[in-house]
Automatic annotation (TrEMBL):
This is DUF805 domain-containing protein. PANTHER family: BLR8105 PROTEIN, INNER MEMBRANE PROTEIN-RELATED-RELATED. The lineage of its organism: Bacteria, Pseudomonadati, Pseudomonadota, Gammaproteobacteria, Moraxellales. GO terms for cellular component: plasma membrane. The chain crosses the membrane at residues 49-70, 90-109, 121-142, 162-185. Keywords: Membrane, Transmembrane, Transmembrane helix. Signal peptide: none annotated. Pfam families: DUF805 (PF05656). It comes from Aquirhabdus parva.
Length: 201
């Protein structure tokens, strides 16, 4: 083999490797974006949905509690209750987190619906009285498509999603059973007052 032929073959190999490398990088970036949990373009399994929804709930609760505690250290509860409009600016961290939480909770529901091969617009059902709660239960327990559907390939839950999703799901199930049994044993109490009665005890 002449030196020119060797250099030509070497250049071709380098070109092929470069194309393969950049093509693989582009495919990896595309797959990574499709699995990005904060994007509506993708799917969520049951455990992934429970994990991210639970994490979002915890972060929101912690921020709101810290914000409330910091405000209450300088302002009495009576002042907060008597003049809420004039003091609402003190709770801007909570408002920001609540807005972000509202948006992301809808994103997670849309991804869960995609896993069920359903349009994300069905997430609006969750805001209907009674039916919304039943629809949310459906999102939690329904098994998604095992194969590729019109919204992409199945997304496997990571290790932390699996563990946290099971823990959060167990806590939700325990809470539902507790309040359900409490409501049955205390029929005279309105269902909206069950939590307040429990906290007073």
């Amino acid at each position: 083999m002449t030196r020119g032929a060797f250099n030509n073959n070497h250049a071709i190999k380098i070109k092929e490797l470069t194309i393969m490398a950049f093509g693989g990088l582009e495919m990896w970036q595309k797959n990574k974006f499709s699995d990005y949990p904060f994007s509506i373009k993708g799917r969520f399994s049951r455990l992934s949905y429970l994990a991210w929804a639970g994490l979002l709930s915890l972060v929101t609760l912690i921020v709101v509690m810290i914000n409330t505690l910091l405000v209450s250290r300088n302002i009495s509860a009576e002042a907060i209750l008597d003049q809420p409009p004039s003091l609402s600016y003190l709770f801007w961290p909570s408002w920001i987190v609540l807005i972000i939480s509202f948006y992301l909770s809808n994103v997670f529901m849309i991804r869960r619906l995609h896993d069920l091969n359903r349009t994300g617009w069905l997430a609006l059902i969750v805001y209907l009285p009674v039916i919304g709660f039943l629809f949310w239960l459906y999102l939690v327990v329904a098994h998604g498509s095992t194969e590729r559907n019109r919204y992409g390939r199945p997304r496997d839950a990571s290790v932390w999603e699996g563990i946290f999703g099971l823990v959060w799901g167990g806590l939700l199930l325990g809470a539902l059973l507790f309040f359900g049994v409490y409501a049955v044993l205390n029929p005279g109490i309105q269902h909206f007052d069950i939590l307040s009665v429990f906290l007073k005890k």
